[in-house]
């Protein structure tokens, strides 16, 4: 399984869209890995985790054929993770010679309602026919050539936000993005369902700190989550672990965050970072 981080920032981006703080000025001046777009991950060439407003730019930057995407996993209804209006363009007269006839969007009930309402005014019936929007609840499982398990996130009150476990070709990956710290029972339940994690990415919005609001995490929360996964016997030997989803309010740039995370065996993602996950 190939994992590619297309975007690695929280909602505002780094540098933040309207901000002139020291961190954002530094990112603009230094560029490179200090520039972070909204969070999104490409799995192989046919699956996306989240669909932010930066998706089109990601496709241009990294040479992605979005018409090949057959599955999209959406975590929650915030616009930096779900921008459904773009799907109105998935068909004539806006798109021709699609590589895949149909795309399935997996999401919670709030996202499904938002997806359908936000596209209703502009989407053509023939375009809508090529898009399935499927509601998942925590611990629902999708089987087939790719195994998908929805898991409960801690993020927006009143919404059943999700993170996901994906298994393909015997390799398992878990995407714990845009969430506060998960209870150990989540990892224990996934292990009981036969999950085996060779790759995991974790929300690290608070950088070198620790989450206080319960909606996000910092590096010390990530370390705690990894320990819970190990205790649940969920992690494969030599599992590859990444921190992602960084805010401009974190006071460390890429190199600074990399140095802190390395002490705990955690890698730091950047836009364009690629990982190969083996069974």
Mind explaining what this structure looks like?
This protein is of the alpha/beta class. Helices cover 23% and strands 25% of the residues. It has seven helices and 14 strands. It has a seven-stranded mixed β-sheet, covered by helices on one side. A hairpin with a 3-residue loop joins strand 2 and strand 3. The N and C termini lie close together (9 Å). The mean pLDDT is 96.
Entry summary:
This protein is 23% helix and 25% strand.
Keywords for this entry:
alpha/beta; 7-stranded mixed beta sheet
Give the SSE map.
Blueprint: E1 2-7, H1 22-30, E2 40-43, E3 47-49, H2 55-62, E4 71-73, E5 103-107, H3 109-120, H4 125-128, E6 131-135, E7 141-142, E8 146-152, E9 162-168, E10 171-176, H5 184-192, E11 197-203, H6 219-231, E12 235-244, H7 254-262, E13 267-268, E14 274-276
Parallel strand pairs: 3-4, 4-5, 5-6, 10-11, 11-12, 12-13
Antiparallel strand pairs: 1-2, 1-14, 2-3, 7-8, 8-9, 9-10
Biggest β-sheet: strands ordered side by side in the sheet = 6-5-4-3-2-1-14
Secondary structure: helix percent: 10-25%
User: Main beta sheet, described?
Assistant: 7 strands, mixed
Head-to-tail CA distance between termini: 9 Å
Strand content: 25-35%
Overall mean confidence score, pLDDT: 96
The total of helices stands at 7
